[in-house]
Amino acid sequence: MEEIERTKEFIEHLVDAEEMISGGIYEIDQGCPVGIARKKIIGLEKNFKITKIDPKEFRQNPYIKNIQIGDWMIGNIYLSKGAFFEDGKLYVCDARKRDPKSLTAIYEYGYFPENVNYPSLGTIFPYSKWMGVEPGEINTFASFIEEAKGKVLLMGCGLGYVAYMLSLKEDVEEITIVELDPSIKKMFEMYLKPQMNHKINIVLGDAIEFLERENLSMYQYCSVDIWHGVTDMLPFYLKCLLLEQRHPKTKFHYWLEEDLHKGLESAWIQLLKPYLNKEGIERKKGIFIDILNMQSLETVEDVKKFITAPKRPIIKEWALQNSEQAYNHENTVGALIKLLK
Q1: Rounded to an integer, what distance in angstroms lies between the CA atom of residue 92 and that of residue 81?
Q2: What is the per-residue pLDDT across 143-192, written as a single tens digit (0 to 9) for each?
Q3: CA–CA separation, 264 vs 225, rounded Å?
Q4: Is 106 inside a domain boundary?
Q5: b/e string for 35-49 if b means 16 or more Cβ within 10 A?
Q6: The Cα angle at residue 13 between residues 48 and 317, in degrees rounded to 5
Q7: 107 domain-assigned
Q8: How many domains, the chain?
Q9: Quick check: 202 pLDDT over 70?
Q10: Beta 116-123 vs 128-132: how paired, if at all?
């Protein structure tokens, strides 16, 4: 009984910490001036890492330095060099982490000490920026770019940043991009590919259908980036985890996977209190409560082990056990987390 109470107290502490940190995120969301942000996170400094980014170092990135971007439009897609980071304002610059001791989330923000332009891609009507070659994208792809070698498959073209950076590596032989949008493919072929080397090829196709249909044994690595961000990532991610099983010789990477896992961990932390109190939890919580039911969560150490464990094997196990549900999953992470409120 003592152990159960100790575990419940530990969970209550985690939930309180998550709520405090969530409040901090609301206060200093993107675009907040750095001086105001520092005042708003007093007491939460360990959970909000704020870094001044050197503009000179950013401009030395090979893509930023070597690839010339104009103001181009094809169909409803634009590619522009006109986006900019505003002097002294915060922007997300890396995936969130989780402190292994306190188990609390750590958010990574950065700011430039001057206005800094960067290339961006999006739609014209309605106007929407999909992505840009910015510190957040550079940092979240860095480990994959460093590791990948041989023949590499990229699901999603974007601005061709990852393809270009890979093409500069001697141990990368060939890069194939699968792109769904014909306007983005045309944009890449007309304006970007001529500035890059012969290693890069692009084909028109749907990433999920490609993974279902093609033999990937020739590719040593595959990176999937077919979502705009974490909030719309989960349905695609679950499909890909199932389709991974067809391609055992290929190592898979998912853009923003670490950030997705930290978001799911926050949701599980919020669910642990009613779960351990054996309160009725609606079945619409789906994957969240299913995965909790797959764990043994009786002690503080059990909870710590679950929260800090690598999440891909855990989520993949659920997906394999619930393949139809996983393959047809429709809820985004944002919608699922709202269900917990």
Answers
A1: 20
A2: 999 999 999 999 999 999 999 999 999 999 999 999 999 999 999 999 99
A3: 19
A4: yes
A5: eebeebbeebeebbe
A6: 80
A7: yes
A8: 2
A9: yes
A10: antiparallel
